[in-house]
Design a protein that fits this description.
The complex is a heterodimer of chains A (240) and B (258).
Chain A: E1 5-13, E2 19-28, E3 33-37, H1 44-51, E4 58-63, E5 66-67, H2 73-79, E6 80-83, H3 87-90, H4 96-106, H5 111-124, H6 140-152, E7 158-162, H7 170-182, E8 186-191, H8 194-200, E9 203-208, E10 211-217, H9 218-222, H10 225-230
Helix pairs in contact in A: 4-5, 4-6, 5-6
Chain B: H1 21-36, H2 43-59, H3 64-74, H4 76-88, E1 92-97, E2 100-105, H5 106-131, H6 134-143, H7 148-178, H8 185-216, H9 233-257
Antiparallel strand pairs in B: 1-2
């Protein structure tokens, strides 16, 4: 059976010549909850964009056994849902219903199926009563949940989330954590928040300066004080 | 940050709110055309036409203070235009209102007619925007055959104008926090240019991110939405009432008042 993500010797540089990712090799099993941790500018967000086919470099990237190239992109985007860091970028339609329906409609589903998917996705994230709301009328926590609903409505097997806990208060962070824990999909989460990562992920990959520094069990990596401090991170402390 | 959204009362519930957006849009369009086509000689008929949108606003529960604030907000240009009329047209004209009659100029008459038409059409427009969610209005316009590209652009404009305003406020606040003295015109101008540049670059960033979010959800250039619009019996009743009101005033009351 193919793996959720397989990356072999991948290198990517920004147009100005700065190396963003260097010789990355990574494989993620289906159902795994993986935390991509690292300081700001480590290359976490870029790596997520590489998986979704938005950044092209040298090396091999496979999503659910499909090579990431222009021929497979349409199929890959129904398998891998990517949730951006700022929910305002993710929610671009006039109402929440339209936003969540955007993906399923582009998949060519029938209107009734689309309505069912939207209702299910909104119910999963606890926004069932908000379908007719405009995104700019939602709170930060609701926007984050809504952004995840836009992905869930497409029923992807893999979900990537970029800093999903950013600018959330503790209650909303706990709600998000519970939501993400309940999802059966493969989750790949880029975050700087070690408590959040430790509470959610079973595996962690530490990135710094575009290279993989450590890869292993989340709790083991995130409790290594020396490793964390060396790469500008902190040891996970709070049990969430 | 909370903004005074133009459609902030559109989320209320009333019989007017529940009407189909296409019906409301078409009625307002015809109403505006009729009001604009009224002769400049009769202010009284304009007052009669104001009853329609006024009744709609009251029925829909839209606070009149909000309505007049909105009118004032967009009025400066029209006020300047109207007030310029008495300056170039001083032809004497006899004006009568009920039992009263007095001498004025054609310029002043034009001035009041322009202001009157502006207020009446604005009442109708605010009535439309305040009782129709912007998303429904866009869906309605799309169903009426407006170019899809225009609808998409209007949708993005409505969605992101508030994000942009928020960002502009943040930048202004950051400037105010560090501006401890008068910097002089030249420096202020340079600072303003930098702020605009920063806003522009951030807008481009946002556009790139939105593009990624759209493509990630399978966008291939075709805009697909589910329309929930449906013309019902109450919509037809509204159209009929509006038609009777407008044509009644135009064909029966206007000749009496002229």
């Amino acid at each position: 059976m193919s793996k959720a993500i397989e990356i072999e010797n991948f290198t990517y540089g920004y147009p100005d010549g700065t190396a963003a990712l260097s010789d990355i090799s990574l494989s993620v099993e289906h159902g795994q909850k993986l935390a991509l941790i690292g300081p700001n500018g480590a290359g976490k967000s870029t790596l997520l964009l590489v998986m979704a086919g938005f950044a092209k470099g040298t090396g091999k990237v496979l999503v659910d056994g499909l090579e990431v190239n222009s021929r497979n992109l349409k199929k890959i985007r129904t398998i891998l849902g990517c949730c951006l860091e700022d929910p305002d970028d993710q929610l671009f339609m006039p109402t929440l219903f339209d936003d969540v329906a955007f993906g399923p409609l582009n998949m060519g589903l029938e209107p009734e199926q689309v309505k069912t998917r939207v209702a299910e996705a909104l119910a999963t994230v606890g926004l069932a009563q908000m379908a007719d709301k405009a995104p700019h009328h939602l709170s930060a926590g609701q926007k984050r949940a809504a952004a995840i609903a836009t992905i869930l409505a497409m029923s992807p097997r893999i979900i990537t989330l970029d800093e999903p806990d950013g600018s959330l208060d503790p209650r909303n962070r706990d709600n998000l954590l519970n939501l993400l824990r309940s999802l059966p999909q493969t989750l790949i989460i880029a975050t700087c928040n070690m408590n959040f990562a430790a509470a959610l992920a079973d595996r962690a990959v530490l990135l710094d300066k575009g290279r993989i520094i450590a890869d292993g069990k989340a709790k083991k990596i995130m409790s290594d004080a020396e490793l964390m401090t060396e790469h500008g991170l902190e040891v996970a402390q709070r049990k969430m | 940050m909370h903004h005074a959204y133009i459609d902030k009362f559109a989320y209320q519930d009333s019989a007017i709110h529940r009407l189909d957006s296409r019906v409301k849009f078409l009625v307002v369009l015809v109403f505006t055309a009729v009001v604009i086509s009224l002769p400049r000689s009769s202010l009284s008929i304009l007052a009669c036409y104001a009853i329609g949108p006024f009744a709609v606003l009251v029925w829909a529960g839209i606070p009149l203070k909000f309505v007049f604030k909105q009118i004032l907000l967009v009025s400066p240009f029209v006020i300047v235009l109207a007030l310029s009329c008495p300056l170039y047209d001083r032809t004497p004209v006899a004006v009568s209102f009920g039992p009263f009659s007095w001498q004025s100029s054609l310029g002043w008459l034009r001035c009041f007619v322009i202001l009157g038409k502006f207020i009446v059409t604005m009442l109708a427009l605010i009535g439309l925007v305040s009782t129709t969610r912007f998303s429904d209005l866009l869906a309605g316009l799309q169903r009426l055959g407006l170019p899809r590209l225009l609808i998409i652009q209007l949708g993005f404009l409505y969605r992101y104008i508030f994000v942009l305003i928020d960002r502009a406020h943040h930048i202004l606040r950051a400037r105010a926090g560090r501006k401890l003295r008068n910097l002089g015109f030249k420096t202020e101008l340079r600072t303003a240019a930098s702020m605009l540049g920063s806003l522009f670059i951030r807008s481009i960033d946002t556009a790139e991110h939105i593009s990624i979010a759209m493509q990630a959800r399978g966008f291939d250039g075709s805009w697909r939405t589910l329309s929930k619009l449906k013309v019902r019996r109450c919509d037809l009743f509204f159209v009929l009432t509006a038609a009777v009101f407008m044509s009644g005033l135009y064909f029966f009351i206007k000749p009496i008042l002229q």
